[in-house]
Predict the structure.
Amino acid sequence: MIKGGKQTKKPLIGIVICIMLIANVTTVIGNTNKIPHRNVETMEPNLAPNPSFEEGDSMPTGWTYAPESTGVYIWDSSYAYSGEKSIGVLNLTNNSESSEIMWVTTDFIPVDCTTHSYMWLVWFKFVEIPPECHFVMLRFLTYDINHHFLESYGTGISPPNNTEWHQFGCNTNYGDTKYVKLEMGQWWDLEGEPDPLIEIRFDDVNFSIWNTVPDTPTITGETQGRVRTSYEYTITTFDPDQDEVRYEIDWGDNTTEFTDTYPSGEGIRVNHTWDKKGTYNIRVRAIDDRWAAGDWATLPVIMPLSYTTPIQWFLERLLERFPNAFPILQYLLGFNE
């Protein structure tokens, strides 16, 4: 089924899109049913190593910590969200060397941030209710194609006023990043006095693809025509996650518009009129309902002819027969351009 697009110019929406694309950390707390669109319990494949910390010898396989850290790092079966084991940290103090105590993955995890965003979720609990200056910290360490460190990105959450298991997460897409490592632990917010006896536990890590950008659209329609004449174009794309999509259309004449949202795979019809002769490149890209934008599709169009009324047609034929007559009329009709 094909539907019509909304013909309105919305320059401010482009600003909103840029702001939303720049934002790269979202916090998720509590019941996973409140996380939109994805069943996070079944997101696959899980890229996190040893996600429930069941495997290992002296340390959980795939995870480590800084050996010079003054934190206390725990891996045992005292607590578990699922399975038999979990990891933990304690001995958070307020000196500059140990204002955070973090577990980190040992290996580089490959990612493709040009087409995907990723969700990182983990279950955590405080063994005792901590002071307000204690925070749970999740952090990405990002690397380029040669494993050179780029930047770290983190987000934290103040602890709940209980000792139950909670889920905490963030989603991200970091441009040129090719590999990441995951860090999680306990952090002091530089106010108040941390309690070194407060222990926090982590279990059931899931680091998976959260969203994939829509496919490059197809655009079909007239590629040659007359100015001041409306032409119809059909646009279609598919979203790998079956998200609804909207289209950003650049008509090549300093006119941009955004359509309403439509289901993945549903074609839409839009119309446009060019006012001046010339060659134009129509560019279209799809944006899903999490504001992930796909690649641009391009369709060149040529508007070599002018719209003519019957009188104009008669005068043009007259001037073609007598090319040296009526110079003023020739100028007004554009014969001297």
Observations:
- The first helix runs from residue 11 to 22.
- The domain at 3-7+214-305 is CATH 2.60.40.10 (Immunoglobulin-like).
- The longest strand covers residues 200-212.
